[in-house]
Amino acid sequence: KIPVIIDCDTGTDDAWAIVLANSSDKLDIRALTAVNGNVELKHTGPNNLNLREYLNIDCRVALGADRPVIGGVNPIPDVHGENGLGGVELPKAKRDFDEKYAWDVIAEEAERAAGELVILAVGPLTNIAITFLKHPEAKKNIKRIVMMGGAFGTGNTNPYAEFNIWIDPHACDIVFKSGVPITMVGLDATRMTTLTGQEQEALLTQPTKIDLLLRGMRKYFIESHKAMGRPDAVTLHDALAVAAVIDPTVLHTEKYYVVCETKSSQSVGQTVVDFKGHLHREPNVDVAMSADKEKFVQMLRDCIACYAQ
Ligand code: BDR
Ligand code: CA
């Protein structure tokens, strides 16, 4: 099994990512580490704590950063509902957080996994950047960071920035310059896997042990999209990053030098992919150019079957 840490700002699609990872016999979840992002840490932390028990995952759960490495908490548009899980109230966890912070847990688990650990970073990269600043030796023990974030095309927060990177561009800059192998699962790929309302319904036909979560989030998608006057199509961005660790062929990737824009007043958080080699730098990121939607949907079907009643 591949040892993984899921660093997340849980979040509806983060929850889907955890559900998918937990269903796979290829992954061994060593920790869930929470970061500020979709909602504040006071929600993302408890969401992870509750999910560990709800999904019966045997792993550590740690709190990480409550703000970006530079600057304060940005006002965030309400995409995932006030508590991050679209208002779904999971049973309150009995067990508490790890006594250590996310960056210390990541460094410890990286050492324990002796070079095999894969970090699934599906929120802002703050915790990963702090890990590298505080424990530089951890870099050599991390096999790869598979991150959901960035875009080489259009953004979803400013014209070119994707949300996770926009929240903490300096953290992304640190991670891109770390020398650790990176797979960037950006909007260009995740948007290819957008699920229509009908496709979501087709996934949720059989009763599962986690209907409270899955059907609850689906209900939220329907209601929130209706309130915005939009069709209830949903992109489970973070789950695609997990899928790519379970089965890398779900993505087509190409290797390029990628740098994060940290200064621009208009496109801060843009992940600039040097397709033509203008910057004369060695490639540092495997960029997801496209995703295989049919394969991804099949993985979601298999995942849901694991939780069938
Ligand atoms: C990313 O931002 C968050 O809203 C999602 O959880 C995902 O990680 C998509 O831009
Ligand atoms: Ca996320």
UniProtKB/TrEMBL annotation:
Keywords tagged on the record: Glycosidase, Hydrolase
Domain of life: Bacteria
Keyword Hydrolase: yes
Ribonucleoprotein recorded as keyword: no
UniProt xrefs under InterPro entries: Inosine/uridine_hydrolase_dom (IPR001910), IUNH (IPR023186), Ribo_hydro-like (IPR036452)
Any single Gene Ontology cellular-component annotation: cytosol
GO molecular function: purine nucleosidase activity
Pfam families, per database record: IU_nuc_hydro
GO biological-process terms attached to the record: purine nucleoside catabolic process
Domain Inosine/uridine-preferring nucleoside hydrolase: start-end pairs: 4-297
PANTHER family hit by this protein: INOSINE-URIDINE PREFERRING NUCLEOSIDE HYDROLASE, URIDINE NUCLEOSIDASE
Protein name: Nucleoside hydrolase
Organism of provenance: Neobittarella massiliensis
